[in-house]
Amino acid sequence: MASTAKTIEPIISAAWGKPQSWTLDSYRKRGGYEALKKTLQMEPAAIIDEVKKSNLRGRGGAGFPTGLKWSFVPKDSPKPKYLAVNGDESEPGTFKDRYILEDDPHMMLEGIAIAAYALGVHTCYVYLRGEFKFPAERTQAAIDEAYKAGIFGKTVLGKDFELNCYLVRGAGAYICGEETALLESLEGKKGWPRLKPPFPAVVGLFGCPTVVNNVETLASVPAVFQQGADAYAKLGTDKSGGTRLVCLSGTVNRPGVYEVSMFTTLAELIYDDKYGRGMPAGRKVKAVIPGGSSAPVLGVDELDVAMEFEALKVKQTMAGSGGVIVMDDATCMVRSLWRVARFYAEESCGQCTPCREGTPWQTRLLRKIEEGRGEPGDIDMLSNVASSIAPYPPIGLGNTICALGDAAALPTHSFLMRFRDEFEAHIREHRCPFGDKPWGSFGDWS
Amino acid sequence: MAEPLFTSEEQKTFDAGIAEIISHYPPDRKSAGMLPALRLLQEIKGWLPPDGLRLVAKHLEVTPERAMEVASFYVMYHLKKPGKYVIDVCTNLSCSLWGAEKMLAYLEQKLGLKAGEANEKFTLRETECLASCGTAPCLQINEDHHESLTQAKLDAILAKLS
After folding, report:
1. CA separation for the pair A304, A319 (Å, rounded)
2. Could you tell me how many CB contacts below 8 A there are between chain A and chain B?
3. Fold of the domain built from segment(s) A243-328
4. Does the structure show a pLDDT above 80 at A87?
5. In the predicted model, what is the mean pLDDT of residues A329-333?
6. SS3 labels along A407-441
7. Across the interface, which of A190, A249, A347 has its CB nearest the CB of B94?
8. What are the pLDDT digits (tens) for A64-85?
9. What is the distance in angstroms between the Cα of A173 and the nearest Cα belonging to chain B?
10. Which pLDDT belongs to residue B85?
11. Distances (CA, A) of A219 to A123, A243, A245, A310, B117
């Protein structure tokens, strides 16, 4: 399909794929660290105001306004303040941060330095998921370069401001992407989320004020000061400034990470020549998860929606982490949900009873239905189990300490709402209607 | 007499590594170095032997039980000696849409192991998302990602593992 999507100048992904894009030299040639120089001449409060004005929203999943989050850090606290970078990217469908870390880590490091100066932070920990071996190597090399170049260390580009930055790798636990679990993990403990309030901005790492920002969020910060907050805000919608990275996966011709305008629709992402280039021959879209596996699934008639926070909220789903998963008409929705449910059962930390007991229960019921052993009451049972973890709607008011419970229940509610007939067919026919090809015959393994 | 945990070279690597790790945290927060310290131990020994856990705990000034509590929470730490090659196959949604379930079945048959089993050479595990959804199907072998796999590509990779 010829391109109809609004063209944007890429900000985050501009250098990806270019030779040596991950080096300090390459970054500087592209104007890197000029925004930091500019902000070092500003008052910290003015930096936070600019970020507020830019309408930059967190890119980790919740979409909280970044400047507002920064402004919650108490200015008069006698305790040290910390910055923790959330690079624990683990939600199925989400794979954008690793591209930043692999191809342009200095962009994130510049964002770190700007944020640290604005917040009065002298120590930053970059927490990457344990499986990110190669991204961690690239990021560590960039940190080492930044120390050597006087960007980190006793002074920041000559300014009398000490900033240290350390890389920490997780060890395989999705829950550590939840900001308070991440802090527990950084403190050397198992990743059990904490009750909020108090929020990390006031009581965070080691009991001190801490800002937790996603990799993409911090990588977006330099652009706010290169372009100016107003110009950055204008790139997006009234409530969400800038561009965003979306991850396209599943049955489309060209999966990948694309930087898009907030006005780009799901349909454009899937079909446009610039992005997904449509479906494989003979296939049609059946369903799309728009924001990582926890985001409620949409049907094929709901794709004309902009991929930004507010528009997706109207559809009772969410932009989340930007992970768009496309399922074609040869895909079994029961098996798809079973796969998603298994993830949350595996990754539940076990702290809260509804999540600890409910997530494996969902998985067992789904397996039973998929394998043709389902009974008439199982769908209602599944719905009840999901409701006991988190009712639907509204989004975000579950019965657990952290949002993993919501994340586990939302897919169940939405799959049952939109594709109940497939669940019923499994039970009625005592088999999977897709036989031994629940994923169709896509890929080279069929 | 029990064998020492480390050779002299390994001891040097551990001592230097643990000192570096501890230096990243406030002096009264040494225990925060637990994850990097366990990773260091595993990089040296290939797994987390009980004596090693006790040693890490001593350096970080916590109880050995605390070290075990953390080590057992995270799936990347090996509390038993794994096969020489740990193969983690992602079977989550995006990978399954590209044939990951069949890839796992192929590996099970080829290696003579069920997911979750191990022999001296291989540990085969079914794992959750590896953040390679756009280059599915994916697996990792000892933390190295292999993406956009086909049967032929996987065969070539396995053939190189001695």
Report:
1. 14
2. 167
3. Ubiquitin-like (UB roll) (3.10.20)
4. yes
5. 96
6. HHHHHHHHHHHHHHHHHHHHHHHCCCCCCCCCECC
7. A249
8. 999 999 999 998 899 999 999 9
9. 6
10. 97
11. 18, 12, 11, 22, 41
What part of A 183-242 touches B (C-beta under 8 Å)? 185-191, 206
Residue A36's nearest CA partner among A211, A164, A159, A216 is A159
| B96 contacts on A by Cβ (under 8 Å) | 335, 339, 439
What are the tokens at A94? Answer: 């989400």
B85-161: CATH architecture: 3-Layer(aba) Sandwich (3.40)
Helix axes A404-429, A333-347, angle to 10 degrees: 140
Please state the pTM of the whole predicted model: 0.96
Quickly name the fold that domain A333-429 has: de novo design (two linked rop proteins) (1.20.1440)
Is the domain spanning B8-73 CATH 1.10.1740.10? The answer is no
pLDDT, mean of residues A233-257: 94
What pLDDT is stored for residue A69 in this prediction?
A: 97
* Tokens read off for B112: 């003579």
Query: Among partner residues A249, A323, A349, which is closest to B136 by beta-carbon distance?
Result: A249
* Rounded (10°) angle between helices B50-60 and B34-45: 150
Residue intervals of chain B classified under CATH 3.40.30.10 are: 85-161
Closest Cα in chain A, distance from residue B1 (Å): 33
Q: What are the pLDDT digits (tens) for A378-408? A: 999 999 999 999 987 766 677 899 999 999 9
Chunked in runs of 10, what are the mean pLDDT values of chain B (162 residues)? 89 97 97 98 97 97 97 97 97 96 96 96 95 96 95 96 88
Residue A320's pLDDT is what? 87
CATH 3.40.50.11540 domain range(s) in chain A: 24-235
